[in-house]
Specification:
About 50% of the residues lie in helices and about 15% in strands. It has about 650 residues and is an alpha+beta fold. A five-stranded antiparallel sheet has the order 6-5-9-8-7. Strands 12-14-15-17-16 form a five-stranded mixed sheet. A four-stranded antiparallel sheet has the order 2-1-4-3. Helix 2 runs antiparallel to helix 4, helix 2 packs antiparallel against helix 7 and helix 7 packs across helix 8. The longest helix has about 60 residues.
Length: about 650
């Protein structure tokens, strides 16, 4: 069972509801309904806009008729008054004085009142006669006589405007528009007749008709939807039978003896499906045999192997895929590459692009997240004979590998390289020992010749200095090559850093340097505390010497006021362990010597021995860690000690290098 799951099952097709093309039926129904809705909505819109325009023209014509009727009444009364000698129409002032008495005219008042009440659905709000200063001389509402009637928007601009302007005027905020007809005597303006139209009254007159149009349109659309459903059932009924035949062919079942008869077009399709079903059964048997064989092969492979089809779906996965991708191998099969690698990280993006573009992906180390271990990734397009001249088939084989075994091998090679370096160092030390010995032999011969002479003391001093130098060289070499017993115990890196700070605080204070410790709370590490403290002491001492040389290079100038120079010991958690950084504010390490600073006897200081950094690097190697000089950043240098997490503990382990 495990082998079968690891090799992968073919992706199951999506389940159907027994009627082919349910989504197609929905699309046909919705499409026809939307088409009818669009036609009905367009016709309704055109009808409503024409209705609104016609209504606005009627309202404007009625208001204009009222204004002209009132104008004729005013003119008749003025002519009658002129004939009776009550007013001289040749004198505008007299005529204007006569107009001021129009509110006493009973015929005019009756005419204005009837204009508002007739017809019943009239939208006229008021009728007024005003003077040039817009003071009401006569009004359908007698209480407004003598008040100022403010100007109102013109109804003509709305009537002859666009449909949107008419809709906004009628169905928007309620406002009063007017039709104005001036009253003039020659070139002298005596006043105006102003007829007010209320949009709320217009809206009330149109709402009932518009509502009936909308309900009728909805009824038509509903009826069209019902007809679309019936039409879809009739159009798709042959496809439902073909769908059932496809399902039987997919399951490997034979067609029933009495199949429904189709038309000539669907009959040909049904026959081809029947032949295809037999071919699928044969291919299924071959696939099952091949799958079982591949499962046996993949069970013994430690790499995650995923085979993608030309469509970008996983058709096979090895058991190692569960360990490296974080999911069961049988759950990967059948999924598209976008669901297996959904993230936006470098690994997921590179695999998706390579699978979809059918491009090879060279072996490289990528990580899915900063908190996860990186993987070695390689993707190769597959080639087949059936595609012609060995061309690509579109399928692709993805191989994922854990790089940790490769790193361990590289670490062992690094140890071998260091042992080789020690052999070369041995020859160098032998050369260094030979020179002092030759000098000693020569001076001993001279001493024999001058045993009683006055220069004996000088030769003896030379011998002492050469012997001391030889002792330092031999001692340093023996310390570096002697096997070291590493005693691992649980210890806190923060406590180690604090201990080193306390030991070096006095020396640092004499140079005006402050040592700080910034340690996070971490689980204890299995380390040899004495060795780690010695390595850390060497690094802190180097930082102090570098900062002291920086101060001395200032030619005795006073240091500007400000914070004291610092050496910071920082302890943080890392992806694979813990990190202890030693950062100073010295001159830093020149770029040309960065590759040499961990070599034995290499030093940039005039009186340096070149042993401290080499011993610190060796201590980290004994802990399966590393000592690195971080890339240039802020002023100064930053050394990084990386410690791996150890699952085992308690028992002391022995590690070291063998010397000659």
């Amino acid at each position: 069972m495990a082998a079968s799951a690891a090799a992968g099952q073919p992706a199951e097709p999506p389940r159907r509801d027994g009627r082919f093309g349910f989504r197609l039926k929905t699309k046909l129904t919705v499409g026809l309904s939307l088409l009818v809705l669009l036609v009905v909505a367009s016709i309704s819109f055109l009808y409503i806009t024409s209705l609104v325009r016609a209504q606005m023209l009627d309202i404007y014509a009625h208001a204009d008729f009222v204004s002209r009727t009132v104008f004729n009444e005013v003119r008749q009364e003025m002519n009658a008054a002129s004939a009776a000698g009550l007013v001289n129409l040749r004198q505008p002032q007299k005529a204007q004085q006569y107009l001021a008495q129009l509110n006493q005219s009973a015929p005019l008042a009756a005419l204005m009142s009837s204009a508002i009440g007739y017809p019943v659905n009239s939208s006229i709000r008021d009728v007024a006669v005003v003077n040039p200063q817009n003071v009401v001389l006569a009004d359908s509402d007698p209480e407004l006589v003598g008040q100022v009637l403010s100007p109102r928007p013109s109804l003509a601009a709305i009537t002859h405007g666009g449909w949107w302007r008419q809709f906004r005027a009628i169905f928007g905020q309620e406002r009063i528009y007017e039709v104005a007809l001036p009253i003039a005597l020659g070139s002298q303006r005596l006043g105006a007749i102003r007829v007010g139209v209320d949009t709320a009254l217009v809206q009330a007159a149109l709402s009932a008709r518009i509502h009936s149009i909308i309900w009728l349109a909805l009824l038509v659309v509903g009826l069209a939807t019902v007809l679309a459903v019936v039409f879809s059932d009739l159009a798709l009924s042959p496809l439902n039978a073909v769908s059932a035949q496809l399902d039987r062919a997919e399951r490997g079942e034979a067609d029933p003896p009495h199949r429904p008869r189709f038309g000539p077009e669907f009959g040909q399709v049904s026959s081809k499906i029947e032949r295809l079903g037999r071919q699928i059964q044969d291919a299924r048997q071959v696939y099952t045999s091949l799958r079982d064989s591949m499962a046996q092969v993949l069970e013994g492979v430690n790499e995650a192997v995923v085979l993608f089809s030309p469509e970008g779906r996983a058709v096979m996965a090895s058991p190692a895929a569960q360990r490296l991708l974080g999911g069961p191998a049988e759950g990967i099969v059948g999924l598209p590459v976008e669901e297996i690698f959904p993230g936006e990280n470098r690994l997921d993006s590179a695999v998706r692009r390579a699978v979809r573009e059918h491009q090879p992906l060279a072996a490289q180390e990528l990580a899915r997240a900063s908190s996860q271990r990186s993987l070695l990734v390689r993707l190769d397009p597959l080639r087949g004979e059936g595609s012609g001249n060995g061309a690509e088939t579109g399928s692709a084989l993805l191989v994922l590998r854990d790089p940790e075994p490769v790193r361990r091998l590289e670490s062992e090679l690094e140890v071998a390289r260091r042992l080789s370096n020690i052999g070369r160092l041995t020859r160098g030390v032998a050369h260094e020992v030979k020179n002092p010995l030759n000098a000693m032999a020569i001076h001993l011969d001279l001493l024999k010749a001058k045993a009683q002479g006055p220069g004996v003391a000088g030769h003896l001093d030379v011998m002492r200095r050469e012997i001391d130098r030889l002792d330092r060289v031999v001692t340093a070499f023996l310390d570096f090559t002697r096997p070291v017993e590493v005693r691992l115990r649980p210890a806190s890196l923060g406590d180690v850093a604090a201990s080193v700070r306390d030991l070096m605080a006095a020396d640092a204070a004499t140079q005006g340097v402050h040592i700080e410790v910034d340690a996070r709370e971490l689980p204890p590490l299995w380390i040899d505390r004495d060795l780690v403290e010695q390595a850390l002491l060497n690094l802190v001492n180097n930082s102090l010497q570098a900062m002291m040389e920086t101060q001395q290079s200032g030619n005795g100038a006073a240091r500007p006021r400000g914070p004291a120079p610092r050496i910071t010991l920082t302890v943080r958690r890392d992806e694979d362990g813990a990190v202890l950084r030693v950062r100073d504010e010295g001159p830093g390490v020149p770029a040309e010597v960065r590759d040499k600073i961990f070599d034995l006897y290499f030093s940039t200081k005039a009186e340096g021995s070149g042993i401290g950094l080499a011993l610190a690097a060796r201590v980290m190697q004994l802990h399966n860690g590393s000592l690195e000089l971080e890339p240039e950043g802020p002023p100064g240098a930053c050394f990084c000690l990386r410690f791996p997490w150890r699952a085992e503990g308690g028992a002391a382990t022995a590690a070291g290098t063998e010397g000659d």
